[in-house]
Design goal:
Blueprint lengths: L2 E5 L4 H12 L3 E6 L3 H11 L2 E4 L5 H15 L4 E4 L14 H29 L2 E6 L3 H4 L5 H21 L4 E8 L12 H10 L8 H11 L11 E4 L6
Parallel strand pairs: 1-2, 1-4, 2-3, 4-5, 5-6, 6-7
Helix pairs in contact: 1-8, 3-4, 4-6
Amino acid sequence: MRKIIVTGGSRGIGAAVVQRFAESGDRVVFFYRANAEAAAKIAESTGAYAIKCDISSSEDAARGMDEAIRHLGGLDVLVNCAGVAQIKLFTDIEDADWRRMLDTDLSGAFYTCRAAAREMIRSKNGRIINIGSVWGRVGASCEVHYSAAKSGLRGLTLALAKELGPSGITVNCVEPGVIETEMNAILDEKTKSELADETPLCRMGEPREVAEAVFFLAGEGAAFITGQCLGVDGGFGL
Ligand code: NDP
């Protein structure tokens, strides 16, 4: 029975990841920021343990990781899924928008990876899976701050894979394309349909399809895979 932490597990892709691990009998703790109702639903349906933890704050992330690792009695897998998105013209992006994006989508993973690495290095075992985005690879117009944060997550993944490999820890990134979640409520129906049309597989993806890739990277079959960024995007990033 593995010990798993998933950030952003209350909704969307993170909730599907929590569900996938729970189904296989793993013990799961997940973080959420504010949506206690959604978190309670996932906790009830999966048996996972929910912790209210804002990963964009160094102090809160450290507290949450500490509580999660104590609850689990160790840590085998960290999945960094928590994230925010925003659509804005580059010239309209305020300092506060930029900071919120970088604090959540990049620094949040730094804080949780650091706490996880300290624990995993002790046990010489671990898997870290960061959820990036196809936009971190190809860049998105009107999402410069989001694209920059997700590109940073690629760099964090690659460098950390090199540094933690000798300790028996793998670090990989899953980069979804357009996935049907509340995050995409910021898009109107026309834009969503255009994005589906631009996807070689001609549709948006499901959260479960991203969760399956995460589950694979956490499993025995992926023991020799590290420092990779795996697109789960229906070919969108080609
Ligand atoms: P959702 O908006 O559906 O869910 C976001 C989740 O992150 C929620 O659980 C939310 O908690 C949590 N969260 C947000 N900010 C924080 C924070 N500061 N601290 C802790 N938890 C936080 O997003 P998706 O499921 O769509 O996205 C999940 C990940 O996948 C993100 O990193 C996103 O960038 C990435 N992604 C998504 C794509 C898509 O098309 N949907 C495409 C490519 C990448 P709460 O419920 O409390 O708000």
